[in-house]
Amino acid sequence: MILEPISNRRAHFSFSGEPVDQEKLLTLFKAATLAPSGGNNQPWRYFYGIHGAHGFDLLLACLDEGNQRYCKNAGALILGAAQVRYLYKGREISNAHAWHDLGLANSMLMIQAVSMGIKSHPMGGFDPEKAREVAKLGPDTDPVVMIALGYAGDEADLPPDLARKQASSRIRKPLEEVVKQL
């Protein structure tokens, strides 16, 4: 049942430092490309670096200091960007739903990661202008999210505040609070 990997997805802090290999990353990106999008525009763009490579260090430097503490041991880092404007039949179109569509793609990517034993942690705590520069994004594309990926590390190596977060229960609001029949 698909609900199981969805239920098992959560933000992870403890990574082993083992790189996520190219083939597995391509499987994750393939899952992302299968997400629905308005007009089938597929406005998501991904930029990644594998642990131990220069691209990883460039993306790590974009993260806020607090996120760098644990992401330094991730197996890969991803920058997710949304193409918010594009040309259609010779005229510029503004895509008001590009961020939403990227979110759908990110969900597919992270659920696929769970099914492959890969942990993930999506983050908004990064410098978007630095990320824009690293990925050479034009004005039509917004840097939206960074995602750490990797294999579980030793939780004993985490600083106490992150160890508490890692060990905490995953609390979700009750359905009655977020779903209303009209």
Question: How would you briefly describe this protein structure?
Answer:
The chain has about 180 residues and is α+β, with helices and mostly antiparallel strands. The chain has 8 helices and 6 strands; from the N terminus they run ααβααβββαβαβαα.
Order of helices and strands: HHEHHEEEHEHEHH
Put simply, the count of helices is 8
Radius of gyration: 17 Å
Largest sheet: 4 strands, antiparallel
Strand proportion: 15-25%
Low-confidence parts: none
Broad shape: globular
If strands are numbered along the chain, what order do they take across the biggest sheet?
1-2-6-5
Mean pLDDT score, rounded? 94
Structural class: alpha+beta
Q: Whole-Å distance between the termini? A: 29 Å
Q: Would you count the extended β strands for me?
A: 6
Helix content: 25-40%
How would you portray this structure in words?
The chain contains eight helices and six strands; from the N terminus they run H-H-E-H-H-E-E-E-H-E-H-E-H-H. It is an alpha+beta fold and 182 residues long. Strands 1-2-6-5 form a four-stranded antiparallel sheet, with helices on both faces. A two-stranded antiparallel sheet has the order 3-4. It is globular and about 55 Å long.
